[in-house]
Design goal:
single chain, mainly alpha, 2 strands, about 65% helix
């Protein structure tokens, strides 16, 4: 491209004069261009033409005056005139402007000449008329008018085009120092408008019809330019301008303008941030239009190396430039489209048939759709018999001749002969250019650039696939990357292109070629994923995913299934990418982006706009696609209340926990998609013997390596510490995690959800995916990628389901290895209590492994649905899930919860509770089996507790708990607690959950039996009334109409009622038995010295007492219901039922008094021990509620004998301590204490007050209830004295509780309480002594003489030892007044 870098040449040598006189339109129409003027005049009326000319004349005259005159005033007038002229040109009709074209363009070109001359270097203002100073406003206004005129009018002769090119060329050669940006931009826009108006002529034999017509030639150009003059309003051309532009005569001009446009683009890029991105974009757009208008391979072949070199440099620079003119996305878009356009024209397969030496079958199949003229032309070019012998010799000598004999005529013609050698050299250079630029452009941040790459690659592959054989694979790879683009417009266009190309089958890509691409991409994948280029790794993974999809299932079967070595290599490569090592990949930029911006570090605006540092969101397009289909699991209880952390969405299959970054998650979805397609290919093939077990065995071998080492004798003998300290143990653990991930994704690929994800990821209109299609596609001799392609589908052939179940069974068998689940997930685990300290990596890796294994169980449940339980997998999985539900790791708990909900949903259950109850026999069976070996299964009580706390109470599950409860009770006895002391609290928690469930169920028992009793009583009364009525009327039962009799007279009705009563009685006995066992097992633990055990035991006792009371209430109602049924049966003479009722006699349900008799001593011991404040407060609460439930009669003697232990708690005084006796052991003196602590007062001051408040509240509850107040009658005076002493003391913190207790005690004996209070109050306040209401009564001072000391007060004498007698007058006044106002009045 020698001429592309030269200075402008004069156009028109060898032609007629290029200057034509510009005449008045009326004269021009009648003289020089009479036929054209007559045709244009027919389209536009004379009035319109005259009006337009009249409006144009003042403006053209003003322009000529500006060129003749000098000074600022003339420039100002010209600027305003040009603005008005531009408005006129935009509104004027095109036919009228066409007739006035020469008249209008003449002053504008004169103005352009003057503007260019005055802007050249070395030219000064005022050197002549033609060289006058033209301001930027005037020059830019003239160019704007010229652009409008050229966009609405067409050139009619070569001379006109030559003149315009001659005038525009000097302006295009101005440098940025000589002309403004707007001026240079106007020059290029004028050139673009002129070239764009060039249209093919009407002559069918003209050479302009032989140009390469591409479908994408003007699709985007037409939307970016102004309105084009329509054909019917255009003037008739004297000459075909397109044919001239494609001829050798215009080669110099075309080459010169190609050079000018490329040079203008390079200049703006070299200016950096000062460069104009808009000017560069317009230059490249004009270049693209010029290439498209020339459209001839012969005319552009000479300039192709220069175009490729300059545009290739531009595209290569865009890899590092993200701002300025060089990084402008619009410029890069036009450069890509211009480059591909030039290549499609010059290297089109149709234009290079002779040099390519294509086979006849290929050429006929590729170009069979050509026109008849093209076919005839090719037939004429066929050689004769004599000529065919010389073809070989000619072809071998052409290349050497073209290199050596380049005469001057060839150089003047600027023409190159496209020989085979030239094509090979050119395509080789182009392949290097594509390899250096197109992979980067495929992942460019700009959507427009990526869309331009799609359009360009599609055009190259459709028209130049044979010529660009070297680059065909690279271009296909670019389309594969763009097929997974995040932008819908880009991905859909790339998917349509890929679908069209792969539909051609072997004629476009052979199976070997696809295999080579697949192998090369696969082997390079780990290097990129573990490297520093994160975006490149993601694009490479997506590229491989798209290729896998479009290659089809049969290709995967041929490539992987029939070659175990290739399958093992495939999973090894993906295992490296999915492994834990991927979390350390990426550059430092990822770390910077993931952290908050440091002080003093900010991204530039250009970086943020270009997307060089994108703020990745957590759900990419693929992620959003999968999340919209995959089951979302919320960690919620069955009652709908969320957990403490809120709602957590958990998708299955879940992203492995080591893919922590959002960008890593995007990468994982691409990698997982490939594994899913491999699994889907085993059920999508065409009747092949593909088996899923081949791939499953390869992955299971990696996991079995871990379990085998954990089962080894050395590991069992020396523990996990010694095993993990081996050199490769950590690597084995992580490889097992990666293998589990791939196994989960492999199985998930067989699901309908995975198929739907493929449909949404790859275009819905694609013919690649047919979900739910069950028909068999038959094509003889199908191998790899053929014309009749196999669609992705899930086959339902016989044996497919069985094969899947068999594979899942083998995977679950390995997943259930106890050695893997026993690996520690936290540092304080029992397995870690050795001499060697384990690193934290082990705990994190173990947690991640168990999490992905749990996810796999959920995935298997999704795949099999109801078959998951039918195949026996539920029995082995459910117990494990409940066990991991109480794991110390939050990640494992969330995963287990999500899997439980998934299995419940796939099994057809609305809640997890229903799901667990339906499979309770599996759980209880496992529990009972493992309860016999607690040394090996110490987690059993936790599983029982978690199961009950998770699913809540259930009528169906309680009957299964009798056998486990017996085993638990035996473990809570003395021997069991001695053998397994560390399991006492876990067993108590399990018993507590059983007690809660029983309490929940027992509350509804009385209401249910009561409603049943009301119904039975109503029916019994009806039977009694009917029998009495029959006796009165003496009507026998035989004489009555059987159909008219009510249903309660029949035997079946009462049998149903009796069966229902027996069911309620049976369930009541079950609840009572479980409650009794809970109470029996937990009561001795009230005397425990461990706070946790004591608190759990108190909770069990409270729930058990409530349950027993409800059971007894339900029993009493059952007795009444049974009596009513018995009476009705006797009246109806149903002797059979009567015999059955007599045989089913109930044992008297009198459980509560014996339970209280056993509980009381342990209550007393619990209060006496005073383990902690929490235990004492909880014990008083439970004791108070128990007395209210059982009644006070039973506790009268107990309070009289053992109440002193309780009242002694009220006498606690932090300021009065008893010293230790000499016989006692020496107490420990704390450094912050001056005196030693006593054994009776080990608590702080505030702790003793909390205990006293709890005791006072218990007294309030007991005394306020008439049923329970009887328990305090024998100790009422003592209690009143103690409480009055506390109320009148100076302890303000106890005052409110004491007043509440006095209010409750006043409900029992108000006179006693008032007397004790008034004795102190009136002794201190003699003035407020009330007078007797009548004279016969003795005055109060005689009844209550003033005491000699505080010890003589009545409350002190009644309270006895421990009563407080340190009276506070202010407290006395306030307490007495409040009691008098609230109670005594």
């Amino acid at each position: 491209m020698n001429c592309c870098h030269s200075r402008p040449c004069h156009i028109g040598s060898g032609h007629a004069s290029i200057h034509r006189p510009l005449l008045h339109p009326s004269r021009s129409a009648s003289t020089t261009s009479q036929p054209a003027g007559m045709e244009a005049a027919a389209a536009a009326s004379d009035e319109t033409l005259a009006a337009v000319f009249a409006q144009l004349k003042p403006h053209t005259t003003a322009l000529l005056d500006v060129l003749r005159s000098r000074g600022p005033a003339s420039n100002s007038a010209a600027a305003s005139s040009l603005r008005a002229m531009a408005v006129l040109l935009r509104s004027a009709p095109a036919p009228a402007l066409q007739l006035c074209f020469e008249y209008t363009v003449f002053p504008l070109l004169m103005l352009l000449d003057a503007a260019v001359l005055c802007r050249k270097e070395g030219k000064a203002a005022g050197q002549g008329v033609g060289e006058s100073d033209i301001t930027d406003a005037v020059a830019e206004g003239g160019l704007a008018c010229l652009e409008i005129l050229l966009s609405k009018c067409r050139l009619t002769s070569v001379n006109q085009m030559a003149t315009l090119l001659k005038k525009l060329t000097p302006g295009a050669m101005l440098s940025p120092r000589e002309a403004s940006e707007e001026f240079r931009l106007g020059i290029i826009r004028c050139f673009r408008a002129m070239i764009l108006q060039l249209q093919p002529c009407s002559d069918k034999s003209c050479s302009c019809k032989q140009a390469t017509v591409l479908p994408t030639t003007l699709t985007i150009i037409s939307s970016e330019v102004c309105s084009v003059a329509h054909q019917k309003h255009s003037a008739k051309q004297d000459e075909c301008l397109l044919a001239f532009l494609q001829s050798q005569y215009a080669s110099a001009a075309v080459g010169h303008w190609l050079s000018l446009l490329l040079q203008s683009s390079d200049i703006e890029a070299a200016r950096g941030h000062r460069g104009s991105g808009g000017l560069r974009k317009e230059s490249l757009l004009a270049l693209r239009i010029l290439i498209a208008k020339v459209g001839s391979a012969d005319a552009l072949a000479f300039f192709l190396p220069g175009i490729v070199s300059r545009l290739g440099k531009l595209l290569y620079t865009s890899k590092t430039m993200i701002s300025g003119a060089a990084g402008s996305a619009l410029s890069i878009e036009q450069a890509v489209l211009g480059l591909t356009k030039a290549l499609m024209i010059v290297l089109c397969d149709k234009e290079n048939l002779s040099a390519l030496d294509m086979p006849s079958d290929n050429s006929s199949t590729r170009f069979s759709g050509g026109s008849s003229d093209h076919v005839l032309q090719k037939l004429r070019q066929l050689p004769t018999k004599n000529e065919s012998k010389q073809i070989v010799h000619v072809e071998t000598t052409e290349d050497s001749i073209s290199d050596v004999s380049k005469n001057s005529a060839d150089r003047r013609s600027l023409h190159v002969k496209r020989t085979r050698k030239w094509l090979e050299e050119t395509t080789s250079n182009i392949d290097k250019l594509f390899s250096a630029t197109f992979p980067h452009l495929s992942i460019h941040p700009s959507e427009k650039v990526r869309r331009s790459v799609v359009d360009g690659v599609r055009g190259l592959l459709s028209s130049c696939s044979y010529t660009l054989t070297r680059s065909k694979m690279l271009l296909v790879e670019c389309l594969c990357v763009l097929a997974c683009d995040d932008t819908a417009t880009v991905s859909e266009a790339a998917q349509d292109s890929l679908d069209h190309l792969f539909m051609k089958g072997q004629s476009f890509l052979s199976e070997n070629e696809v295999s080579d691409i697949f192998t090369r991409l696969l082997e390079k994948l780990p290097q990129l994923v573990l490297g520093s280029e994160e975006i490149t790794a993601l694009s490479h993974a997506r590229k491989l995913l798209a290729l896998t999809f479009y290659a089809g299932p049969q290709f995967l079967i041929n490539h992987l299934h029939r070659s175990p070595v290739a399958a093992a290599r495939f999973f090894d490569c993906l295992g490296l990418c999915i492994s834990h090592g991927s979390q350390f990949s990426g550059s430092m930029d990822k770390l910077i982006v993931s952290k908050p911006l440091s002080v003093g570090y900010l991204y530039s605006v250009a970086e943020l706009k270009s997307g060089a540092y994108p703020k990745y969101i957590s759900h990419s397009s693929q992620h959003a696609t999968s999340s919209s289909i995959a089951p979302k699991i919320s960690v919620l209880r069955d009652d709908g209340s969320s957990n403490a952390r809120g709602t957590v969405e958990y998708e299955l299959p879940h992203v492995p926990p080591w893919f922590v970054h959002a960008s890593s998650q995007r990468l994982y979805f691409a990698l997982a998609g490939m594994v899913r397609l491999v699994g889907l290919s085993t059920v999508s093939g065409q009747g092949t013997s593909a088996s899923l077990s081949v791939f499953v065995d390869i992955l299971l071998n990696q996991f079995q390596r871990l379990s085998t080492e954990l089962r080894a004798k050395d590991t069992h003998r020396y523990g996990v510490q010694r095993w993990y300290m081996k050199s490769d143990s950590g690597q084995i653990l992580r490889q097992a995690s990666a293998a589990v991930c791939m196994l989960n994704e492999l199985i998930y690929g067989l699901s309908d959800q995975s198929l739907c994800i493929c449909i949404q990821l790859f275009n819905k209109s694609s013919a690649q995916v047919v979900p739910g299609q069950n028909d068999k596609t038959s094509s003889a001799g199908h191998r790899g990628v053929t014309d009749s392609r196999v669609v992705w589908k899930i086959s339902e052939e016989m044996g497919t389901k069985d094969d899947i179940i068999h594979c899942i069974g083998s995977i679950l068998h390995e997943y259930m290895s106890p050695e893997v689940w026993d690996l520690p997930t936290e540092q304080n685990s029992e397995l870690c209590l050795g001499e060697i300290s384990l690193p934290l990596h082990l705990f994190r890796d173990t947690t991640a492994l168990q999490q992905v294994m749990l996810d796999g169980i959920g995935v298997f449940g999704i795949i099999l649905g109801h078959d998951f339980a039918r195949s026996g997998f539920m029995h082995s999985s459910l117990y494990l899930l409940l066990w991991k539900l109480i794991s110390s790791s939050a990640q494992i708990r969330i995963a287990s919860d999500a899997v439980l909900r998934t299995l419940a949903t796939s099994g057809g259950y609305s809640t997890v509770g229903q799901f667990v109850v339906a499979n309770a026999d599996y759980i209880v069976d496992s529990l009972c089996r493992q309860l016999r070996h607690l040394d090996l299964n110490p987690h059993v009580p936790d599983i029982l507790a978690s199961m009950l706390s998770y699913i809540g109470a259930s009528r169906d599950i309680l009957p299964f708990l009798e056998e486990p409860m017996r085993a638990v009770s035996s473990e809570l006895e003395v021997l069991g607690r001695h053998d397994h002391p560390h399991l006492t609290v876990p067993f108590l928690k399990a018993v507590s959950e059983i007690a809660k469930a029983c309490s929940h169920e027992s509350i509804s028992l009385p209401d249910e039996v009561q409603s049943f009793y009301v119904k039975v009583r109503t029916e019994g009364q009806a039977v009694q009334n009917l029998v009495e009525k029959r006796r009165e009327t003496s009507v026998t039962a035989e004489a009555t109409d059987v159909d008219a009799q009510p249903e309660f007279l029949f035997l079946e009705y009462w049998e149903d009622l009796l069966c229902k009563l027996n069911d309620m009685r049976r369930y009541r006995r079950i609840v009572g038995s479980l409650v009794g066992s809970c109470l029996y097992a937990s009561t001795p633990l009230l005397s425990s010295t461990k706070e946790s055990a004591c608190l759990v035991a108190l909770d069990i006792v409270e729930n058990a007492v409530v349950s027993i009371a409800k059971v007894e209430e339900a029993y009493k109602c059952e007795i009444e219901s049974k009596a009513v049924i018995s009476e009705a049966v006797q009246l109806l003479s149903l002797d059979e039922l009567l015999d059955d009722m007599d045989g089913a006699e109930d044992v008297d349900e009198n459980r509560l008094p014996p339970a209280m008799n056993k509980l009381w001593p342990y209550f007393v011991i619990c209060l006496k021990n005073k383990i902690s404040v929490a235990v004492v407060r909880r014990c008083t609460e439970v004791l108070g509620r128990t007395i209210q439930i059982c009644g006070g009669d039973f506790f009268i003697r107990r309070f009289h004998q053992d109440g002193y232990i309780i009242w002694r708690l009220l006498a606690l005084s932090p300021f009065k301590r008893k010293t230790l006796s000499l016989m006692d052991e020496k107490a420990i003196i704390l450094p912050y204490r001056n005196t030693s602590l006593t054994s009776e007062e080990p608590m702080a001051e505030i702790s003793s007050q909390k205990i006293q408040i709890a005791v006072l509240d218990m007294i309030t509850e007991i005394s306020s209830n008439k049923r329970s107040a009887i328990a305090l009658e024998s100790v009422l005076k003592k209690i009143c004295g103690l409480v009055v002493g506390i109320a009148y003391s100076g302890l303000i913190g106890l005052r409110e509780a004491a007043i509440r207790a006095l209010t409750g005690l006043a409900c029992m004996d108000a006179d006693l309480v008032w007397l004790l209070l008034a004795d102190v109050y009136h002794s201190l306040n003699q003035r407020d002594m009330p007078l007797p209401p009548i004279q016969d009564l003795v005055e109060l001072c005689d009844l209550l003489p003033p005491p000699m000391s505080s010890r003589e007060y009545l409350f002190v004498q009644y309270g006895g030892d421990g009563v407080r007698y340190d009276i506070d007058p202010s407290s006395v006044h306030e307490v007495f007044k409040r009691m008098e106002d609230a109670v005594f009045k």
